[in-house]
Amino acid sequence: MTDAVTVTDLVVERGHRRVLHDLSCTVPAGRVTGLLGPSGSGKTTLMRALVGVQRVRSGTVTVLGEPAGSPGLRHRVGYVTQAPSVYPDLTVRENARHFAALYGRGTRAADDALAAVGLADAAGQLVRDLSGGQQGRASLACALVGEPELLVLDEPTVGLDPLLRVELWERFHALAAAGTTLVVSSHVMDEAGRCDRLLLLREGRLLADSTPAQLRAESGTDDLEESFLRLVRAQQEVAA
Amino acid sequence: MSATTAVLSPRLTAATTARVLRQLRHDRRTIALMVLLPSLLLGLLYLLWVDLPVSPFDGVGLTMLGVFPFVVMFLVTSIAMLRERTSGTLERLLTTPLSRLDLLLGYGAAFGLAAAVQAVVTVTVATTLYDLDIAGSPLLVVLIAVANAVLGVALGLLASAFARSEFQAVQFMPVVVLPQFFLCGLLVPRGQMPGWLQAISDVLPLTYAVEALQEVGRSAAETGTMWRDVGIVAGAAVLALALAAGTLRRRTS
């Protein structure tokens, strides 16, 4: 299996605080990799480093064979921030068409992306009139529209009802099956089970690079939340 | 690959212009304010002086035709850009093939077009309803108004980099606009200013915009001074856009 992303000894500081400590990890191509950890563990910072908008102190991030943030990567990588980053004063369709235009795609691609996130019926509505969950999906559609090879999604399922959450995860796996590499962050451990691979972050360090099955087997519990807690405790004992 | 590494792509600049104009289209009240407010304010000035034996309206009114687009576009742009920064759309745009220059020129073109509409309406109203006397072509007044608007856009884009909130952004308006307005030669002729103030006035772009308008106001033929002044205003706008591009960092902490 080839790696879509290779992170080596990444150090990031924000203000005077070190957010990522010598982090090294890889992301397999054509899979859904979950980036899990509590709030403040460095998930968003790592994702920003992958898409090349994070100033890094040291270390390297290689994405699809090029340094993260290279001009050549800008039509190959899609990024969806945690807060919906779409224009509230445009309609859903206008937003999708704008980002389609930036990626050199037509209006057809925009309509397809809206259908993919279940927003075809709301296409004519202004984004500011949508619910929070719909705004998040509009934001996702604006990344899907570029058909990126690597899709980086920061907590895409927050605020979604269970049905939509399941549908989106099915969509993620369909994209992966078609060859897209996905990095999806979440602080909800029950979503960890839906990932092909897991990167567990805690306080800016990689706690585990594993799969759901492996994690369950090693910790001796089916509950991934519990697995995570046992890992944390085990590490604290080692530290002590 | 060549398309994505381009410093400037006319297609992506046009996409940005279209997007900004669409945002404007959904905001009818802003359009109404933008198009009508200068005419109404100019009407107030006209009525203020209409009964006086010697009215300064021709000079002041003409100058205001250049000041309005400058002030309005400065404010609108600095708020629009601040919104891009705080909403996360700017960060997102910077991960797409859109270059920083595409974004800034896209904004300049969109608000420049809006300013052209504003100027056509205001000049028409001023010359028909308020008897504003312009010796030269009204189209030149529109051209200077658009150059001023683009200057306002460029300075607004630049100022937004130093504003962390809307409260700060709006307060940059008096900082950037009022000194230029005081020193442009309208309140006191430039020749009667203390030397050091005149020296400051010499490096402020609004001075040249106002001089260009005065040239059009008093001379039926296009003057070399007028074209030189328009060139200076356009050059100042390009300089401000370049500085604004420098403040747009793709990577932030």
TrEMBL record, chain A:
Pfam families: ABC_tran. The keyword Nucleotide-binding applies. Keywords: ATP-binding, Nucleotide-binding. One of its GO terms (molecular function) is ATP binding. InterPro entries: AAA+_ATPase (IPR003593), ABC_transporter-like_ATP-bd (IPR003439), P-loop_NTPase (IPR027417). It comes from the Bacteria. The keyword Ribonucleoprotein does not apply. PROSITE patterns: ABC_TRANSPORTER_2. Residues 5-228 form the ABC transporter domain. This is ABC-2 type transport system ATP-binding protein. It comes from Geodermatophilus saharensis.
TrEMBL record, chain B:
Residues 29-251 form the ABC transmembrane type-2 domain. It is found in: Cell membrane. Keywords: Antibiotic resistance, Cell membrane, Membrane, Transmembrane, Transmembrane helix, Transport. The chain crosses the membrane at residues 31-49, 61-82, 103-127, 139-162, 169-188, 230-248. One of its GO terms (molecular function) is ABC-type transporter activity. The keyword Zinc does not apply. InterPro entries: ABC-2_transporter_component, ABC2_TM, ABC2_TM_bact-type, ABC_2_transport. It is a multi-pass membrane protein. One of its GO terms (biological process) is response to antibiotic. The keyword Disulfide bond does not apply. GO terms for cellular component: ATP-binding cassette (ABC) transporter complex. Belongs to the ABC-2 integral membrane protein family. This is Transport permease protein. It comes from Geodermatophilus saharensis. The lineage of its organism: Bacteria, Bacillati, Actinomycetota, Actinomycetes, Geodermatophilales.
